[in-house]
């Protein structure tokens, strides 16, 4: 398992509403929102560049900054929906 996958497994278990001893349950609303790349809390855990690379949506603000200024995605954290 790569570092990212390992990190995601930990984050999933942490955000999961009904974690098991093996980690996230994979069935609750929180697990599901991570599966569909829509968990609002996850955005603060990844730099924008990583989110783009892995197909996660950026916040409208972050995305419009990139579009408007033809800027590069930032390495800062918080490509957040909220
Ligand atoms: Zn769960």
The total tally of domains equals: 2
pLDDT averaged residue by residue: 80
Number of helices: 4
Largest sheet: none
Write down the overall geometry: elongated
Number of strands: 0
What would you report as the Rg, rounded to the nearest angstrom?
A: 14 Å
What proportion of the residues is helical, as a percent range? Answer: 40-55%
3D architecture notes:
By secondary structure, this protein is mostly helical. It is 44% helix and 0% strand. The longest helix has 13 residues, at 3-15.
In short:
The chain has 82 residues and is mostly helical.
Features:
82 residues, mainly alpha, 2 domains, 44% helix, binds zinc ion
Secondary structure layout plus pairing:
Blueprint: H1 3-15, H2 29-35, H3 48-53, H4 60-69
Bound molecules: zinc ion.
Zinc ion (ZN) is lined by residues 16-18, 24-28, 30-31.
């Amino acid at each position: 398992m790569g570092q990212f996958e390992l990190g995601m497994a930990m984050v999933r278990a942490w955000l999961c509403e009904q974690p098991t001893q093996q980690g996230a349950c994979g069935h609750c609303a929180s697990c599901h929102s991570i599966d569909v790349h829509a968990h609002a809390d996850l955005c603060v855990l990844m730099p924008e560049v990583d989110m783009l690379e892995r197909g996660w949506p950026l916040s409208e603000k972050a995305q419009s900054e990139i579009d408007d200024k033809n800027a590069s995605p930032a390495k800062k954290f918080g490509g957040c929906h909220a």
